[in-house]
């Protein structure tokens, strides 16, 4: 019923759809929706005497502009480029991790590369098949309550990370020349604030990038490959420990080393003979055993040398039986890397 004479008329309300149309137009949320909401709002405003005509029209105009821009974007490819850029940003953000989150087998890029030493908080995780700065080979925990200091940590890290990386990649022939031992260690601040005790070891690119995983252990190799590599690697570990001084200067050290080498050769021969190598690899591995036996006889005599001349007499043929490319045929049969190490230059 109409209000009694003299009574005030109720104030007109603002149409809700008009407000929704304006909001939709401003935020570009489903652009055509703003047009529909605005058109419905105009009809209700006229029929009910509500306010909000300007809001509805503004929402329709903004929605129309948004609709035209989106249509133009699809037509010219600009919208696809925008979506691709947004996706790339999202992927970059998603792949950015804390350096504390690294796990064995992870490949990553470090801001600024891995050539220079620097404090690092975040890294970018990368698929190992793609070019990357480094690959995590393992980790170990430091002990003690007081911060050991950088020199002490680095000394321990260099020794232990070398061994960890050797176990991670048993096939040293497959490790590229630009890959070097790398590690993250706690700073005094991280030691105190977050109880950081972890040294993370890795292979890192000394120059350029690494491509493909360097992992070569029981998780990626078969039993024959592992048996062969372990037998030969135990021998390599003794060879690299050769004394710096010649036997003329330190005969005792050289004789002791020759004894260690003889013992290592015995162990390698036993490991190779104790494993049944399959098919085409059996004969090449047997040929390696023969070479090791020949070398063992010379090193056994060098280990009993009473003077430098006698030591040198067996040193040369002992090394000739252990050339850098020893076992290349066996490696080929076992489907291991056949790229022999390069002769070191003086």
From TrEMBL:
The chain crosses the membrane at residues 20-42, 54-75. Residues 17-71 form the DUF4190 domain. It comes from the Bacteria. The keyword Nuclease does not apply. InterPro entries: DUF4190, Septum_form. Residues 86-201 form the Septum formation-related domain. It holds the Pfam family Septum_form. Keywords: Membrane, Transmembrane, Transmembrane helix. This is DUF4190 domain-containing protein. It comes from Streptomyces roseolilacinus.
